[in-house]
Amino acid sequence: MPSLESDPLSTEKGRAGEDQAVTFLQNQGYDILARNVRGGRGELDIVAQKDDIVAFVEVKAHREPASSLQAMSHDKCARLRSAAMAWLSKHPKASVLPCRFDLIMVSPAKFSKPWASIEHIKDAFR
């Protein structure tokens, strides 16, 4: 039977991917409002703002972009919506701004930084 504990290598990989995503977003002019926020039925990897838009950013660190997309199941999206609603209820100034759900896919590069290939899909789901 598989262990219910999280795989430390997977957690480490995910954290490295999130760090790369934060750096990427900051370089694109986003302000990072929060990271790894639990609420509702889920967890938000990154809450960021650029201009007047709040982006709830899910980060997927996989070798293949297709597996990142497959990980975004209907249930996963519902849990992210729930977490976003919980976060917005605690941040009334942000709750009046337009919001969207973004996906950042971080994949390893063959001969450079370990997680150097980044694809940002804005408004990935509703």
Model description:
The protein is of the alpha+beta class. The chain has a single domain (8-108), classed as Trna Endonuclease, Chain: A, domain 1 (3-Layer(aba) Sandwich). 37% of the residues lie in helices and 36% in strands. The chain contains four helices and five strands; from the N terminus they run H-E-E-E-H-H-H-E-E. The chain has helices spanning 8-27, 65-70, 74-90, 92-95; strands at residues 31-39, 42-50, 53-61, 99-107, 117-125. It has a five-stranded mixed beta sheet. Strand 1 and strand 2 form a beta hairpin. The protein is globular, with a radius of gyration of 15 Å. Mean pLDDT is 86; it is low at 1-9.
Short description:
The protein contains 4 helices and 5 strands; from the N terminus they run αβββαααββ.
User: Could you give the order of the helices and strands?
Assistant: HEEEHHHEE
CATH overall fold name = Trna Endonuclease, Chain: A, domain 1
Lateral strand order in the biggest sheet: 1-2-3-4-5
Number of discrete helical segments: 4
Distance between the termini: 35 Å
Major pleated sheet: 5 strands, mixed
Approximately how much beta-strand content do the residues carry?
35-45%
Helix percentage range: 25-40%
CATH architectural category:
3-Layer(aba) Sandwich
The overall number of domains is: 1
Class derived from helix and strand content: alpha+beta
The number of distinct β-strands equals: 5
Assign the CATH class.
Alpha Beta
